[in-house]
Design brief:
- By secondary structure, this protein is mostly helical.
- The protein is built from seven helices and two strands.
- Strands 1-2 form a two-stranded antiparallel ribbon.
- A hairpin with an 8-residue loop joins strand 1 and strand 2.
- Helix 1 runs antiparallel to helix 2 and helix 1 packs antiparallel against helix 7.
Length: about 200
């Protein structure tokens, strides 16, 4: 696995999330239409950047399908914002739960390759599932409260992704400097491999 390219993808997606969250905080009172379009653009940008920056050999059919579906969803929301404005709470709940499950899945994977910050992504994923469930169970919540809550969550996700990306980059540098050092399968400390000379 190309950890350097993966870390770049994670960092870029984290920076995008932080910028989108801050934009939603600065621009919440304009209209629900603007906020829905910002969210739509975020979905499309995340889909494109995740595909373009994916490590070589990992661009599977599922990644292509996921990216295309997110782009189509983003386009549909962007060009029909008022149609989705009344359903934004429910849509947001589903999107947050979807990305949160992906975060939990990714955290289990990076735990296996020895990144010690895996628990941060797990915590973000669990918090997102709880938040998404709240949006689904309370769709009548005010749009302003939704905007600020969603914006804050997106910023937190972005910070977590940037932190995780730097940890992945450090792990890649460590492996590159010492080719006999490999991440353990059980998530513990480093394992040194090599020949035994008698």
């Amino acid at each position: 696995m190309d950890l350097k390219r993966t870390s770049r993808s994670v960092i870029v997606n984290g920076v995008i999330a932080i910028l989108v969250g801050l934009l939603m905080v600065v621009w919440p009172g304009t209209s629900a239409e603007v906020v829905v379009r910002i969210f739509a653009i975020w979905l499309a940008v995340i889909a494109v950047s995740s595909f373009v920056l994916a490590p070589k050999g990992t661009r599977s059919g599922s990644l292509v399908a996921r990216s295309v579906l997110l782009i189509l969803l983003g386009a549909l929301i962007f060009f029909s914002p008022m149609l989705f404005a009344s359903f934004v709470t429910i849509l947001t709940g589903f999107a947050v739960i979807f990305f949160s499950f992906l975060a939990v899945t990714a955290s289990l994977f990076i735990r296996r390759i020895g990144v010690r910050m895996w628990w941060l992504l797990t915590a973000i994923g669990v918090a997102g599932i709880i938040l998404g469930g709240f949006f689904l169970l309370a769709p009548g919540a005010g749009i302003t409260a939704l905007i600020f809550t969603l914006a804050g969550f997106i910023v937190v996700v972005g910070i977590g992704l940037v932190t995780l990306g730097w940890r992945l980059r450090k792990t890649a540098q460590t492996i590159r400097q010492d080719p006999h050092r490999r991440p353990p399968e059980d998530g513990g400390g480093d394992v040194i491999s090599g020949e035994i000379i008698e």
